[in-house]
Design goal:
Structural class: alpha+beta
Largest sheet: 3 strands, antiparallel
Number of domains: 2
Helix content: 40-55%
Strand content: 5-15%
Length: about 250
């Protein structure tokens, strides 16, 4: 219930985590109580603590209206939901672009507002080319995957624009990305490390567990298959494989 709390900072929490791993009856009871609350225990470890996911219709499920309130999103239309979904997919893909990254419990990825926006825009460009080619071949994308249904709306928005007081305008794509990354940080999935590139964050073990579940999603696979994400260096600093337009 306290997403930023970690066993390493709380002796009682650390003892519960240890007991969960050693006492099968306690583990079963914990899982049963969680299930009764509409929660699924994804993992329990000393690094991440107890990582939970809400099941459908759980009172803890974060619905779009709740996310919009927490992220101060004005528009709550269906298109807006898809756009924010793209931002979260790009963040996960940048944080863990390879299967080995998800399997390695010591791996730490880095993402920034500019990187995430750049990856989504590059994905939009590729999907635009696909659509144009299909149109030339009189082969409309009737069976287009999820990502190809939303690229137009994202590409139409400006990347950045300042408000009168110098803040990033909320209706820009980077404003949207900035809110999404702050939301993930509030949930204990990311930690901000600097203000560079619109805000740079590192991933947490808690986020790694969540992305392992997400990686099975077809939209996540489609985004990686576009080839717009690449590993920048062995230290876990990531960059989008796009032109120098950021």
């Amino acid at each position: 219930m306290r997403p930023k709390q970690l066993p390493g900072r709380d002796v009682v929490y650390a003892d519960l985590v240890r007991r969960y791993g050693e006492d099968s009856a306690f583990k079963q009871l914990t899982n049963s109580v969680a299930a009764g609350l509409g929660l699924l225990v994804l993992d329990v470890s000393t690094q991440a603590g107890a990582v939970l996911a809400a099941t459908d219709e759980s009172v803890f499920e974060i619905k779009m209206d709740s996310y919009a309130r927490q992220s101060k999103i004005r528009e709550r239309r269906e298109t807006e939901k898809v756009l924010h979904g793209l931002v979260h997919l790009a963040t996960a893909a940048l944080g863990y672009p390879r299967p080995d990254d998800l399997a390695n419990d010591t791996y730490i990825g880095r993402v920034s507002v500019e990187q995430v926006d750049g990856v989504v825009r590059e994905a939009c460009r590729i999907l635009d080319e696909r659509a144009a080619k299909a149109e030339r071949n009189n082969d409309p994308l009737s069976d287009a995957p999820e990502l190809e249904q939303a690229w137009r709306a994202y590409a139409r928005r400006p990347a950045a624009a300042a408000t009168k007081d110098g803040r990033l305008a909320s209706d820009t794509t980077r404003g949207m990305v900035s809110r999404a990354l702050r939301f993930l940080a509030d949930q204990g999935f990311l930690v901000q490390v600097s203000g560079e590139q619109g805000g740079t964050y590192r991933t947490t073990p808690r986020y790694q567990v969540q992305v392992r579940e997400l990686a099975a999603d077809s939209a996540f696979e489609e985004l990686l298959e576009l080839g717009v994400v690449a590993v920048g260096d062995a230290a876990g600093s990531l960059r989008p494989s796009i032109s120098d337009t950021l």
